[in-house]
Amino acid sequence: MARSARRSTHAAPPGLRSRRGRTAGLAAAALAIGAVAIPGGVASPAPAFAADAIDCSAIYAMNSTNGSGSTLWSIDTATGAQTEVGEIAAGADARSTFNALGVHVTPEHPGGLAYVMRSDHWTTNKGAMETYDFATGTTTSVDVVDLPTGWTSTQTHGATDPKTSRYFHGSTNGGSLNLDARALDSGAREGRVRITFPSTIPGTNGDMAFDHGGNLYVVMSDAKEAAIYVVDARDIILGQGNPAPAVRSKLIQRFTVADPGNLGINGAAFDRDGFLVVSTELELLRIDPMSGEVTSTVTFSEPGVVDLASCTAPSHLTLEKDFPEGRESDDDTDQVRLAASGSGLGDIATQTTGTARGVQRERVLVPVLPGSVVTIEESGTGTDPERYRSSWICLDGASGDRIAGGRGTRADVTIPEGRPDGVGVRCTFTNTPRVEAEILLTKSADVSQAQVGDRVTYSFEVTNSGTSPLSDVTVDETAFTGAGTLSPVECPSRPLALDPDETVTCTATYVLQQDDVDRGSVENTATASGMTLTGTPVTSLPSSAVITSEQAPGLAIVKSTDAAWFWSGSTIDYTFLVTNTGTVTLTDVRVDETEFSGTGSVSAVECPPEAASLRPGQSITCTASYTTQDADLALDTIDNTAVSAGTAPGGEPVESAPSSATTPRGDGDSGKTGQPTPPAEKGENSGPGGLADTGLDLVGPLVAGGAALALLALGIALVRARRHAGSHDG
Q: Does the pLDDT at position 71 exceed 80?
């Protein structure tokens, strides 16, 4: 974190600036309840607003002063847009400046805390540690004196160490970076350390950040150039006096800066992808920490940024040397040079010293990007293949899981991806003195996962790692958990003989069984043995290969009935077809009725003996029945729903989706039992009441009768008309 050449106030855009002093009464009291309490600290007045909880995928920034505190922003690294998320030390003296930003999440404060140092320039080397609570928007202040000596007591560098739960802050003096370490909960100083550099630093401005292993990454900068240094966590030893204990950093990479403000880098943090994000007063740069390449540059929407921080840690790789049995020589002539390179890294190296047994003190530490490939290598007299056998392994430092490994003095290692908090890769070269009689076996399989019927090919790589030829070399299976039979081990020749450093590969095959899948894995262990020229037998250490199987339990049920409809006293027979649709054998398979709309009770479901153990793809049929009641005739349908259930090999329960069967009511006399009359079909000639067709066609006779009546009426009318006319004539 860095200093600013001048004190300036930058107003936030409308709508982002908080309005201090307008939160009163119960609202202010409610926000203050959750404020972080630091012994001896003084809490700020009611907050301007309560910010959102900290987002560890975000980059945070601050300004030196806004006139009465420091504005805290969240930065959009793609555009440079700033969103105000809080105000640190609201109401502070306008002459104070703020810097050395660090952010951290604790179990007591999952919403996150921000730590900064306040410098009071009108005093002599005095200030305060300010702790801002993201959840409540309040600031707690702890006065400090005797700040690390630096530029007018302004603290340029600051960060929190997640491993030790300490807040480090400081500034440069005489070419060294002087840091204080403070407890996060109390602000009490716990010690000091002085960071030295391997060469002249580019400038005194900059910032720093930690990874989850407690390793420290320091950026030093002037207006044109910046450099990235790393400090091994093992070397950070705190002291109480002056001068503080010195620890030497190692240069990782340099990159170019073009700062129009002529100050250089003033803030640094790692983003969620492992890139180093740095700031000047006006711009945000994204740096590949391995190559030093500036991958993007954006301009801040509001100038005046003096520091950056995040709670995201980068991935890193450490390279160590192990002499588990000591050196072959009695003096200190057998040493090893360790080096890491690739993906833009230069040759980052170290040299072992002394004659100590075990893991050596010296090691290489570099920041790495997920997915990058790092070349690790050892060289020197301590790797002489005539006297030493060399192997290497890389582990996940947090879980201990194996990432890669092999024999030799050089390897390419791919850094795991998909870790939002980064991964610490710990690689170790192991050298043991060679002896006359020694044999090595490495067992492997051509697949890591398999299912029923898959053929697995095992390989047995046998190496004569001693100095004497071996005869009668054999591979012996010592343990095998498969349910089937492993094929015989086939080697290139029998009897098999190996010269020193000669390697052969033998093979065997196995077809996976259902019981193997139910168990979840098959483990195979073997040893190799042989005979020296002097008749001394030698046997390798055991080597194992494990094949796992994906266990995906599943059940399906289809419920049906042969009844087309029901009536009082009729019997409805239910059938349940249950199928194991998963990949593992299920035990204690049953059918559970879950819903039934009838007024009586369904009989108990009966399943065949095969339900005790149902293998994948197998089906069973279970049955139940129901005798309808008079009260059921008030229902339109009788509905029945059921599920099938069982137990997987690991003991976890398995249940199918539900299946239902519906039986409609017949149209017989509801007061009688026996066969009902099916529902009537309405024909074309049925009336509005749905009368059934009798089979008689009355349309023709009705039409004829109507016509005759009409003719008769017409004749009567004509006769009457003529009579009426005749009476008028008379």
A: yes
Short-list 546, 496, 554, CA closest to 525: 546
Report the candidate in 446, 475, 472, 481 with the shortest Cα–Cα distance to residue 460.
475
**394: number of CA atoms within 13 Å, CB side?**
23
CA distance 558 to 581: 13
- Find the CATH number of the domain harbouring 371: 2.60.40
Query: What integer is the mean pLDDT of 682-690?
Result: 35
Per residue in 196-228, pLDDT tens? Answer: 999 899 999 999 999 999 999 999 999 899 999
Helical (H) or strand (E) element with 716:
helix 699-729
Backbone Cα Rg of the chain: 43
C-alpha closest to that of 493 among 502, 505, 508: 505
DSSP 53: P
Cβ 196 vs Cβ 256: under 8 Å: no
Q: How confident is the model at residue 418 (pLDDT cuts 50, 70, 90)?
A: confident
Contacts of residue 477, Cβ cutoff 8 Å, sequence gap at least 6: 486, 489, 508, 524, 525, 526
> Does 149 map to a domain?
yes
Give the number of C-alpha atoms closer than 13 A to the C-alpha of residue 51, restricted to the C-beta side: 28
Q: What is the mean pLDDT of residues 393-409?
A: 92
- Residue 281's φ and ψ, nearest 5 degrees, are -65, -25
pLDDT one-digit tens code per residue, 295-318 = 999 999 999 999 999 999 899 999
Arithmetic mean of pLDDT, 458-473: 93
- pLDDT per position as a tens digit, 22-32: 333 333 333 33
**Same domain flag for 363 and 417:** yes
Which residues does 240 contact at the CB level (< 8 Å), separation at least 6? 191, 192
Confidence at residue 730, expressed as pLDDT on a 0 to 100 scale: 32
| Beta bridge mates, 464 | 439
* Structural domain count, the chain: 4
Question: End of a domain among 632, 664, 696?
Answer: 664
Is there a domain that residue 714 lies in? no
